[in-house]
Amino acid sequence: MRPVVDSRNVWINNYVNNPNIRYDFKRRKLKRVIKDLIYENAAICDEISQNQEKLLILREECKFLTKKLKIFEPQLDVPTNVKTPQAKKATPRKKPTTNGVTPKPRRPAVKHKKNIIEVQEPITSGNVTIYSFGEIVYDTPFYYTDCAIYPAGYYASRTYAHFRNIFAKCVYHCKVIKAGSSPRFEIMDHEKHFKVTGLSTDECHSHLISLINKLLGAEDLIPANRNGDRFFGLTLPPVRMKLQESPASKFCTGYIPLELQSDNHESELKAESDPAVSFEGLHNTLNRFRSRH
Fold this sequence. Notes:
The protein has 293 residues and is of the alpha+beta class. It contains seven helices and six strands. It has helices spanning 7-17, 19-72, 201-216, 228-232, 237-244, 263-271, 279-292, and strands at 123-125, 128-132, 155-161, 169-177, 184-189, 195-198. The chain has a six-stranded antiparallel sheet, with helices on one face.
C-alpha cells in the first residue's frame, strides 16, 4: 500500500521552504483582483454609454419642446410700425330663389369667448408696466393663491437694478406661461442676456437677488423676503382689481378678493419701496448701510 501523504503538510512545507510559491500565490491573487476590476470597469463603461444615449435623446426632446413652446407662446413683442394689409371685405353672394321664395339666412355660429382680459394700452403703476393680463385659469389651484392670481399669458415689465451693474437701471420682462396643471414663471432683461424660468415667482426673483448680492459682496445684504409676486406686479391693487372684474375670478377658490377701500392699498404701495423690488429703495438701503459703517 502507498503511504498516505497529507497534501496540506506538503503545501505548507513547500510554502515555507520555497519562497517562489509565495510569490506565485500573490500573483494569482492579484490576477483575480485585476480580472474583477476589468469586468467592473467594462460594466461602468456600458452604463455610461447608455446614460449618454439617454442624455442625447432628452436634449433632442427639449429642443423639440422649446420649438413647440415658441410656436404656442403669444407673440407680444410685435413692432407697431409695421402696417398690416387690410383684407378686402367679400361681397356676399345672392342665394338662388326657389319658386320666388328666398331661403331664410342662417344664424352665425356663436363663438365662446375665453377668460382673456385684453389691454388696449399699457397700464403703468410705479415701476411696473402691464401689457397683458392674460387668461385666468381656475381649473387647478396652482394658478392662484390667497392674495394673487397667476393668469396664463400675463406680461409685465419692471425697472430695477442691472444684474451686472447695480448703478444702472434695467427693464425686466416678467411673464406667466401656461404649462399644463401648473404655470411657469419667467424673468428676462430687455437685451435677453439674463433669463430665468421657475415654478414660482419667488424662485425667479430670488435668483435675480442672488446676483445683486454677489455684486455687493454679501450673500444676504438684500433679502428677497418672498417678494416674487410683488416683483411681477401681481399684488398691485390696480392689477388685482382688474383681475377681480373677470367672472372667472369667482371660481378661484381660496383667493381672497381685494376690497375697494382698504388699508392694503396703502401698505402695498409702501411695500413697493422695498430694496428687493425698487431701484430707488435699493440705493437708499445702500446709502444707509454706508453711513453706518
